[in-house]
Design brief:
Layout: H1 5-13, H2 31-44, H3 49-52, H4 58-72
Helix pairs in contact: 2-4
Protein name: Alkylhydroperoxidase
InterPro entries: AhpD-like
């Protein structure tokens, strides 16, 4: 999946629009959150705010990304 740099910049800037929680900024992410952010940007092409809003709880962030990744990116069928 290829995302144009302009779209990537706009979506990254959209993190400031997440309210009621404080999403971890990409340059401040550590540990599990940093690893999930890196994989998300590598596989999905952009750090999407609907996923990043889970970043204050890194295990929940990882679970949300796993579910989204399996649905949108993994090819093939189950069973």
């Amino acid at each position: 999946m290829t995302v144009k740099p302009v779209v990537k910049a706009v979506l990254r800037g959209a993190l400031k629009d997440v309210r009621h929680i404080r999403a971890v900024a990409p340059d401040s992410a550590e540990g599990l959150a940093a690893r999930v952010y890196a994989q998300l940007e590598r596989d999905f092409g952009v750090l999407a705010p609907p996923v990043a809003l889970h970043s204050p709880a890194p295990p929940v962030l990882a679970a949300a990304w796993t579910l989204l990744r399996e649905v949108l990116l993994v090819e093939g069928r189950v069973g």
